[in-house]
Batch of 2 targets.
Target 1
Amino acid sequence: MSIPKTLIDQLTEGRIVPFVGSGVSLSLKPSLFPTWTGLLEQMAGQLDAEGKPSYAQIVRLLCETGQVFRASEQALAQLGKAQFNLISRNLRNNTNGWFSNCSC
């Protein structure tokens, strides 16, 4: 596939904002961004650390069965909003500034 030079020029000049799917981030650098299940595994690990192994197991089982949305709801409910957001912020802080302008 050939990318037109005009498109490359406009991207370089900051005149185009590309809209891409979430899978693109995984191809950039595999260790840069975790998958949803990878992020939820970090949250399950935090639940283990907080002495909530049964809830950690629920999050893991939901992930294993493809129920990532339900797993994230369970993680949020058990970790609380502050801890849930802290794990997400730590992800943002460990990506070499990729999210430096993000207010999420």
Target 2
Amino acid sequence: MTKDAKGGDVPIVGSVIVCDLVLKITIELISAITNKTVTIAQARIYNDGSGTKTKGNYKYLFLNKGKKWGEGEFKNFPRTKKNVWDLIYSCLNAHLKGEL
């Protein structure tokens, strides 16, 4: 267990934090020949509850072929001015800045 910003318990399964405020992004490869679908990557982004009405603080976890590729946090996201794609981009960009 870990604690959210308000002191509530948030369970951890492996390295994935489980809570109600999760965006789960799944990337699948679909064979044009067999039509078989394989999940090749996932992302989970969750609100840590410490933001304001206009600025959100998020934590993210990226998985590549089921293995952790990266994790971190993105603070002060302008959630009333930007959309979900901007949040996904911001988390990816924050992670890749540390990778390059």
